[in-house]
Specification:
Layout: H1 4-11, E1 15-17, E2 25-31, H2 36-49, E3 53-58, H3 66-73, E4 75-78, H4 85-95, E5 100-104, H5 119-127, E6 131-137, E7 142-149, H6 155-165, H7 181-187
Parallel strand pairs: 1-7, 2-5, 2-6, 3-4, 3-5
Antiparallel strand pairs: 6-7
Helix pairs in contact: 1-2, 4-5, 6-7
């Protein structure tokens, strides 16, 4: 670890398990997201890896003076994906950039959810970019990339692959993290 971000992670006992592939654009999902610390450690790891990135954050976080911190962090405000605004906003960003990785928490909140927000899937599909599956594991004190999904066929196949990648990842607050285990069980039959 050679950057200030890497040194901070190393001093805190974290390791990075990722060599960022030669991908210029992606939707990068990052999970589990059960604590504010996830974003801090994730930002440090992304800086160390050297990804040109932006974080999607709820527009409600952009109030003064927090909006200054969020912009320095590399976040852009988006409306809820339910209105489709965020999807088209991100597709435009990706289409107009030579290199950009848009980082999204697929859970959409630090609270436990039974279904992940599908916005990341539609963003990747409409922008024709891969989904990079990033993770933070508090048990191993490790951050990294689990894999890259280049062929995005349908949501169920994609989320099943992603869920498998997160099967043995441990959140800071495990009771708040949920993957789609019913799809995993059904696909193994």
């Amino acid at each position: 670890m050679s950057t200030i971000s890497g040194i901070i992670l190393k001093e805190a006992g974290w390791k990075i398990n990722a060599k960022f592939l030669d991908i210029k654009k992606s939707i990068t999902i990052f999970a589990p997201h059960t604590s504010y610390y996830d974003a801090v450690y994730g930002k440090l790891a992304i800086n160390e890896i050297g990804m040109k990135h932006m974080f999607l954050s709820k527009k409600e976080l952009f109030f003064f003076p927090m909006n200054i911190i969020m912009k320095l962090f590399g976040s852009i405000p988006v409306r809820g994906v339910k209105n489709s605004n965020a999807i088209y906003q991100v597709v435009d960003l990706l289409n107009n950039a030579k290199e950009l990785h848009v980082v999204v928490s697929p859970e959409g909140t630090r609270s436990k959810v039974t279904k992940w927000n599908k916005g990341f899937y539609y963003m990747a599909k409409k922008a024709k970019v891969p989904i990079v599956v990033g993770y933070i594991d508090y048990e191993k004190k490790e951050l990294g990339i689990k894999g890259v999904i280049n062929q995005i066929k349908d949501y169920e196949t994609t989320i099943t692959r992603i869920s498998r990648m997160y099967e043995n990842v441990h959140a800071k607050y495990p009771a708040k993290f949920s993957i789609n285990t019913n799809l995993i069980s059904r696909s193994k039959l």
